[in-house]
Amino acid sequence: MAVMNDLRTMKNAAWLGWQMEANWADPFLFATYSIVKPISATLILVFMYMVVTGGNTDNPYFSYMFVGNALYMYVAEVLFGVTWVIHDDREHYMTLKQVYIAPINFYAYILGRSAIKIAITTAGVIITLVFGVLVLGVDIFLDDVDWLLLLGSVVLGMGCICVLGLALGGITFLTARHSIGINEGVAGVFYVMSGIIFPITALPAWAQSISKVLPITYWMDSMRRAVMPDAMAELSTAAATDVTGLGGVSDLYIMVYLAISTAVFFALSLGVFRFADGVARRKGKIDWTTAY
Amino acid sequence: MSDGWIIKNLRAVKGRAYPRVVGAQREPSWVFFEVLLPLFTVAAYAYVYQFMDARQELIGYVVLGGAMTAFWLNVLWSMAAQFYWEKEIGNLQLYMIAPISRMSILAGMALGGMFSTTVNAASTLVIGALIFNIAFHVVDPVMLIAIFMVTMVALYGMGMMFASLYMLFGREAYHMSNLLTEPVYLASGFYFPVKYLGVFAAAGASFIPITLGLDALRQLFFTSGAGDAFLSLELELGLLLGLCALFMVLAHYSLRYMEYLGKATGRLTLRWQ
């Protein structure tokens, strides 16, 4: 019964999230918005690459960079989406207190709202990757995709990003207008440190040590291994060194590392969220507004 | 005592600039984020160039472009979108009934925003230059100041024009600002020389003042910048002056028209739409 209630909460929260994301415009305009933004962000890197190489997209690094930047949308958008639910409901629409006193599981509500963010981001990622393959010759071939690894990576990676978002969401309860900065800061650390658009071996040694602890580094590598295995192999072969920094790590190790990271972050995030929630209730911050 | 129209509007400029200059500095954590956040993108893009063994000037362009993003974001979120926020929190009607020009309010926002953003952008520029060992060679400081000033006037003039549109926007204001972020970074060549977009695309993007401003600043900050230039410095200065005049005039008429439209359709006080 409780599970059914939670599922219903998730479904309705997802519907609400969709309405809030999409009902401001007609579907064509919304689709344009959803396509132009991610493709523009990726084209910045494409032009940077072109300026240096003169347009040679056959290099496996091009695919490495393109795919990494496309997948990073998940990190940025989902992290941001989870915390934005709390910020937006509390500060903008001022409905967080009503959600709180409703007889629903608040985590189910957050998950439902986040689910729609994941769905919209997935559309952006797919559009970007299709554009890359068709127009720019990114090395993704459906016959070569390791679907099992892809499925495992997506499930564990999304889980990990969502629980990180939950911790940041908890912190949002206690901050005024800092949640956007904190989110972008955390996402920015991942962008630089997790081998998103360049291999972590380009970083100084001290930074590489940090990179090898971050779960997003492993997630990004496993996703690339799943969708572009040939380009990943070619990248290290061409350089005759372990360019990615994780060349000696097996797929299984990555999956186990991601699973453990997700479990650890889940426990930590739950703790942070509950603590922040308790403090917010005690200090009356659930219906706090700071003129965002 | 009845103040003259000019004095009243100058007071409005001062009054609206004050919270931008003083208020922003009262919360040091915001300054921290505004300086720090662009550095992540700068660092990531700089490492991309380093990984590809690109020439050092390109990394310098990234640092310069990263610093200049502060101005574009300020124009988008704190100029153009400001009337939308004011509407949402119920202040817009107070602006409307005040016996002052809307342009004075926006000019105050622009001046205050320009000051605090310049401080943040300069910090990003200096920190980025130190981290990535970028050498700036300013050969013509007078031209540098002139280009920077006209770029800012034209850019904030464009922000004023956008403000009139945002005054009527509902929830799409947030999406519109998002939509104008990455595509403008791309079109204006924030992280690579704009001439690589091709003549027609670069010419189209030149209607965004920061495109020409950045192209000129690259020429003034880096010895090899002229080789990556889209247009000559003198031509860019002339075009930017033209854009200053164009956006100021357009902003004036656009604000008047949009205010009338907002009153006629009852959207000036409509919240959470």
What do you see in this structure?
The complex is a heterodimer of chains A (292) and B (273). With 292 residues, chain A is mostly helical. Chain A has one domain (2-282). Chain A is built from eleven helices and no strands. Chain A has helices at residues 2-22, 27-53, 60-92, 96-101, 106-136, 147-174, 179-193, 205-211, 215-227, 229-239, 251-282. The mean pLDDT of chain A is 87. Chain B is an all-alpha fold and 273 residues long. Chain B has one domain (5-265). Chain B contains twelve helices and no strands. In chain B, α2 runs antiparallel to α3. The longest helix of chain B has 33 residues, at 233-265. Chain B is globular, with a radius of gyration of 19 Å. The mean pLDDT of chain B is 87. Classes of the chains: A mainly alpha (292), B mainly alpha (273). At the A-B interface, α2, α3 and α7 of A face α2, α4, α8 and α9 of B.
Helix and strand layout, with pairings?
The complex is a heterodimer of chains A (292) and B (273).
Chain A lengths: L1 H21 L4 H27 L6 H33 L3 H6 L4 H31 L10 H28 L4 H15 L11 H7 L3 H13 L1 H11 L11 H32 L10
Chain B lengths: L4 H21 L2 H24 L4 H25 L1 H8 L2 H6 L4 H30 L9 H26 L5 H8 L2 H6 L11 H7 L3 H13 L11 H33 L8
Compact summary:
The complex is a heterodimer of chains A (292) and B (273). Chain A has helices at 2-22, 27-53, 60-92, 96-101, 106-136, 147-174, 179-193, 205-211, 215-227, 229-239, 251-282. Chain A has one domain.
Unreliable segments of chain B (pLDDT under 50, ≥5 consecutive)? none
> Radius of gyration of chain A, rounded?
20 Å
Distance between the termini of chain A: 38 Å
Which range does the strand content of chain B fall in? under 5%
| Anisotropy-based shape of chain A | globular
- What's the end-to-end separation of chain B, in Å? 42 Å
Task: Label the structural class of chain A.
Answer: mainly alpha
SS class of chain B: mainly alpha
